[in-house]
Amino acid sequence: MKAIITGGGIIGLCSAYYLHQQGWDVTVLDKGDFKDNCSYGNLGMIVPSHFVPLAAPGIVSQGIRWMFSSKSPFYVKPSLNKQLVSWGLKFIKSATAANVAAAAAPLRDINLLSRSLYEELGQQPGFDFGLERKGIIMYYKTAAVEDEEAHLAATARSMGLEATVLDKAALQQLEPGVELNVLGGVHYKCDGHLYPNQLMQQLIADLIRKGVKLIPQEEVIDVRTANGKVKELITSGSDYKADVYIMAAGSWAPAVARLAGVNIPMMPGKGYSVTLDAPAVNLNIPAILCEARVALTPMRNKLRYGGTMEVAPVNDRINMNRVAGIVESVQQYFGNLPVKMPAQQDVWHGCRPCTPDGLPFIGFSKQYSNLLLAGGHAMMGLSLGPATGRLVAELASHKPTSMDITAFSLQRF
């Protein structure tokens, strides 16, 4: 049985890994060179704690206020683009307490599944990607956010997750070398982190060793269909036929899907990151700055920090004002971390694929019985890579899935 995967990011490669494990002949097509996607520049966090989706109560009104600041962490660029307008209306409709409540258990479960699979993967020959289980700390500076985070921590504990509310003194014991300018924080010991660059390189090398075909510079330009099935993918260089087709092309997935007449409500959310080599002062534990929505992760002997969510059509522009907002936020929370305004060429940027309700799409297309979509993971693509890959392989092989994936159905919109 043959499988063709479009997209060479973490979702596509993990799908290839588990499909090969189940005996499939796998080919992965990438429009780039497998080295230029969100899987390389992200913050490397594995986050069962992230059971609240992006579409949550209050985000719409907050987002409107943020639109007037060039340094804000969340921004939707006004546009008459019909995909953006449609996505925005669905996002507003989804930003409810009921949506958050319904999303919590599925997001927790898929993150926990992925965490366990990362632990398995880290034990395999050829893999050593800096996996650590130190958790993450959600830092806050204001009493209002302290109340919100304490409530979320209580909810997390009721869901079986490890979450401890700490004052500044307790946090300082965990980070003795860092000057903390915070009120307190929540330590989610259920979380972990890794070094994405090494993970991706090792995953690619492992797939090549196993005979999985990774073909770069192959952009899909047409999809031929007949009798309720995808029959062939056409690229500028070749034609590809398979028994099952998996679309895992990240922010480019909607454009590929439209070639087959499939509409996927998904928009790119651009983010930025900067990586420091051997900083004089580093964190022990990954951090998220609650009010600023900025994240920092120690990776081997490096420190990576990043953030922002710019929802707009795919583009390669770097907004240095938003980068400045990230830098200033880090400086406000951590007094002595060596984080300064970087040169533009040192800023990584990538587009995260965002669904209107903050849940990924994992499942078969309604129109075509052999077309699977795996995408829309937003800021959790790295965290959810192995779980998504395992679920894709189970679906393709018509086996029971490792968890209930009803919440991720393509048919919910």
Q: Would you spell out the secondary-structure blueprint of this structure?
A:
Elements: E1 2-6, H1 10-21, E2 25-29, H2 38-41, E3 45-46, H3 59-66, E4 74-76, H4 82-94, H5 97-121, E5 136-140, H6 143-158, E6 163-167, H7 168-174, E7 184-188, E8 192-193, H8 196-209, E9 213-215, E10 220-226, E11 229-235, E12 239-240, E13 244-247, H9 253-258, E14 267-277, E15 287-289, E16 294-299, E17 302-311, H10 320-333, E18 348-354, E19 361-364, E20 371-375, H11 381-396
Parallel strand pairs: 1-2, 1-13, 2-9, 4-17, 5-15, 13-20
Antiparallel strand pairs: 3-8, 5-7, 6-7, 10-11, 11-12, 14-17, 14-18, 15-16, 16-17, 19-20
Helix pairs in contact: 1-8, 1-11, 5-11
Architecture overview:
With 413 residues, the chain is α/β, with parallel strands linked by helices. It has a single domain, classed as 3-Layer(bba) Sandwich (FAD/NAD(P)-binding domain). The protein has helices spanning 10-21, 38-41, 59-66, 82-94, 97-121, 143-158, 168-174, 196-209, 253-258, 320-333, 381-396, and strands at 2-6, 25-29, 45-46, 74-76, 136-140, 163-167, 184-188, 192-193, 213-215, 220-226, 229-235, 239-240, 244-247, 267-277, 287-289, 294-299, 302-311, 348-354, 361-364, 371-375. The strands form 4 sheets. Strands 4, 5, 6, 7, 14, 15, 16, 17 and 18 form a 9-stranded mixed beta sheet that branches. β11 (229-235) and β12 (239-240) form a beta hairpin. The protein is globular, with a radius of gyration of 21 Å. 50% of the residues are buried.
